[in-house]
Amino acid sequence: MRLPTPTLYERKLSRILYSRGIPHKPSRVIWYTRADYYTPDFVIGDRLIIEVDGSIHSREFKKTPDRIRHRALQNLGYIVYRVTNTRIRESLQMVAEEIIQHYYETIDTTTKGKIEEIRTPITYDSIPKFIRDNISQWAISFSENLSEESWNSSYFRTNLAKYHLALVTNQSALERFLLLLLGLNLNADNVGKLNFDKLVKLFCRSILIVEELFDEGGSMASVHMKNMFNVSAPGFFKNLVFIGGPRIKPGIITIRNLSTLKMHIDDFNRHFSGVGVNVEESEVKTECIYSMEKMDNNSQFSWLRKW
Q1: Is the dihedral of CA 226, 227, 230, 235 positive or negative?
Q2: Model confidence pLDDT, tens digit, residues 159-207
Q3: Which residues pair with residue 167 across a beta bridge?
Q4: pLDDT digits (tens, 9 = 90+) for 108-166
């Protein structure tokens, strides 16, 4: 893979950190799912990541992926500190002092636990095309006989192989399959409110299923599932707005105003933030506005323009 070339301000910061005896690694590759990797500007010590942001990072289309990666890195155990080109240009010494202080604080911290590293995948997308083409239909079929009590590794090990052996031998395929099942188990009550109570329970059971079927050690299944959900959460809410549910189960609810959408975002975060998953309103807004602008007739979603 091709690593990014350090910018002028990254080089300035690197030189002063070296002069102060602070060890750091530029553009280290960190995988946060098996299909997504990140190359932070600097990794200092074991867990401190420094990001040097140019003006492009203040634009809306960059804010969402920045926040998603930020949460993914936190789930892995890293601490992320961002600094702008402007600050480096105007007060390089002060920025260096702040970074050094953060570095020593990470050394002194004993309660953060170890860094969880996702193993480097053989390919960027480790789910074979045949599996990707059929996995949605397999999930729909599998869910027909799936009760809440059946969300355990024994049931999945016994019954998944009937569809394809890769679902119990390919961890990425199983994780994708479980997220599809979560979408199929999403329901609304009689007043049109989504039931996230059941979903967060099934998400936690999904993590246990992966941990028990695949021996990665530590909490890697948990980290990976959380990161996958964080990556997909803004798109999940976009689909709620435009098709009334996840792609695998559209038409669950109808969202016609901002207050209903924001209520669901708040309820989602209330349920899932405790397990390391959440979504920002601004992320959902960016996804929705972008999709609306591509539509030929978007008059029924005109309420989004007030956001």
Answers
A1: negative
A2: 998 999 889 888 888 989 999 999 999 999 988 899 999 999 999 999 9
A3: none
A4: 654 455 666 666 655 555 688 899 999 999 999 999 999 999 999 999 999 998 999 88
Question: Counting every residue, how long is the chain?
Answer: 307
**Rounded to an integer, what distance in angstroms lies between the CA atom of residue 302 and that of residue 304?**
5
Q: Which residue has the tokens 């809410």?
A: 237
Which helix (H) or strand (E) covers residue 273, if one does?
none
3-state secondary structure of 42: strand
Sequence-ordered alpha helix ranges (H) in 192-257: 196-213, 220-243
Location of structure tokens 């074979």: 128
Could you give the CA distance from residue 210 to residue 216 in angstroms, rounded to a whole number?
A: 9
Q: What's the angle, vertex CA 108, arms to CA 103 and CA 111, rounded to 5?
A: 115
Let me know: does 282 contact 59? Beta carbons within 8 Å. no
Contact (CB, 8 A) for 197 and 190: no
Q: CA-CA distance, 201 to 205, in Å (whole number)? A: 6
Using alpha carbons, list the distances in angstroms from residue 66 to 38, 47, 108, 241. 10, 18, 27, 23
- Sequence-ordered strand ranges (E) for the chain: 24-26, 30-31, 37-38, 42-44, 48-53, 79-84
3-state secondary structure of 107: helix
Name the β-bridge partners of 52.
Answer: 83
- Determine the pLDDT at residue 56: 56
Q: What one-letter code names the amino acid at 102? A: H
Domain ranges of the chain: 8-108, 129-306
Output the furthest CA–CA distance in the chain (Å, rounded). 65
213/210 Cα distance (integer angstroms): 5
pLDDT band at residue 16 under the 50/70/90 scheme: very high
Distance CA 102, CA 81 (A): 8
The pTM of the full predicted model, rounded to 2 decimals, is 0.72
Element (H, E) at 184: helix 171-184
Architecture of domain 8-108: 3-Layer(aba) Sandwich (3.40)
